[in-house]
Hints:
Shape: elongated
Structural class: mainly beta
Oligomer: single chain
Order of helices and strands: EEHHEEEEEEEEEEE
Largest sheet: 6 strands, antiparallel
CATH topology of the largest domain: Tumour Suppressor Smad4
Strand order of the largest sheet: 4-3-13-12-9-10
Number of helices: 2
Amino acid sequence: MQxxxxxxxxxxxxxxxxxxxxxxxxxxxxAGESFDIGHTMPIMESSDIxxxxxxxxxxxxxxxxxxxxxxxxxxxxxEPVVGWLVVLEGKEKGxxxxxxxxxxxxxRSDKMDICIAGDDTISRENHATxxxxxxxxxxYLSPGDGKAIVRINEKALFGTAKLAPYDEIEVGKxxxxxxxxxxxxxxxx
Length: 189
């Protein structure tokens, strides 16, 4: 048995039986891509199934090419700050977090746009979202998948709400104040 991992779908399949991934029907390294001369496909031993394997340089390049680019960044060539959240109460008191255009996901994970690492009552990922709509020049707050209720100005938030300057947001045990930069008075060109 020669186990190989499909780079397109991440599936494992027996290379001694199949010439390409039977799930994706895509040859290595991916549908529509050519083989590198002298490049060999990685062979997975049956004892390696389920283990995390390092990415090859080819896989890393593919992953980097797949990152989503914000519309504002594409237009301006950089991703500017559009506002801030500043911690008023909690373990990160006094710290500020930059808000950028479009969706800004809040959580404890360093994968989040706004990572509040010191508060264990905040979900790791997508506890809440602060969004800036650059067309309408409006900020929004939405609850995410967090266990604790998100509050705006001490009221529970169960849907999306517009944010106004100096609104107070509570996620977990952390209280933040919202400070916009962009509005009808200023917008990045």
